[in-house]
Fold this protein.
Amino acid sequence: MFKPLRRLWRCEISSSAGNGTSMPCRVVHISSVYSVDDLRIFHKECRSLVMAGYDVTLIGLSSEPGASRDGVKIRSLPPPRSRRERMSRTVWNVYQAALREDAEIYHLHDPELLPAAALLKMRGKRVIFDFREEVAFDIRYKEWLPPLLRWPISIAYRAAELMFARGFDRVIAATPAIARKYPAAKTRCVRNFPWGHEFRRAQGLPYELREPIVVYVGVLADKKGLREMSQAVELAAKQIPIKLVLAGWVNSGAKADFLPRGDNELVELRGHLNHSEIPGLLAQAKIGLYLPHSMKNKLEALPVKLFEYMAAGLPVVTSDLPIWRQMIESAKCGLLVDPLNPAGVAEALVWLLRHPAEAAEMGRNGQRAVAEKYNWEREAENLVAAYADLAV
């Protein structure tokens, strides 16, 4: 049961009469990378803190002027035109905007904001840093960096990250693997699971009556299995009616064969969907598909799309990685495949579509696992507890 209201930290503020007045603690979330509509930052963390009684402001990127939404005060800054601008001017602008808020707690989300976090700490603010990726590891795979510089930059960033993290009041980690890299006494794991209720209430046909739609939601890129997904559906279509619906941004480097031709009868490109539109799309589908290639920096990742598929009651077909194998097999909610073998992926898709009763049972199993274990309602308690700890 999600009961964060019991954990509210109220700040003692002196009134003009000299009496101590209790009021909600002021919190500012800051990002120079993510939009003010970001799923983890706004829809999960900021909204949960408002529900817990905190006074929350979000500083992030948007081309629209800021306004209050769901109790969160929005301070928007224009998106940068380049990576260089983001890491210089945008960082400085969000830091200045943060200073103007003069809050008690600052919660930062991006690697380039580590120095800004340190400056806020030097001003006597309480600082929480949120690590959702293993950045030092990811740097080794950044194609925009010269290959010879990737390892030295990775090592240098890791050393800087650990140095800064020692001075922060709390570290929030999106996975247990990330959490293990920081001091245990100040680190809390807050996994990026979905709000379970958002998917349970989505309206759709009963599973057995739905069209044979396979869905993928997320970044469309070759390393995410874009080419293999399209090839697997083409192979499966020779045996059974099937359609692949893709929702997300197409990576500029993606080379999947169908992209130059646009939509065809087997593949539909929906483009980027707002957060509120995703449950409706999943409620139309029969299978959730995710085929990232087995990169070392993703071996212990917990991709939210898998849990969204499960929350929506879809059986999943996904890459056979150790941490996902344990989860999928334990919950009995899908099939594991070699992401580089389109024929094997096609075989899994065909089996699920030809066995709708078993597929529906897998979907119910996944939904049950999310309701009991893999949901944001539980993770929000960890987040609010991390804030409550600062009052000690």
Observations:
- The longest strand covers residues 26-35.
- The longest helix spans residues 83-101.
- The CA atoms of residues 288 and 316 lie 5 Å apart.
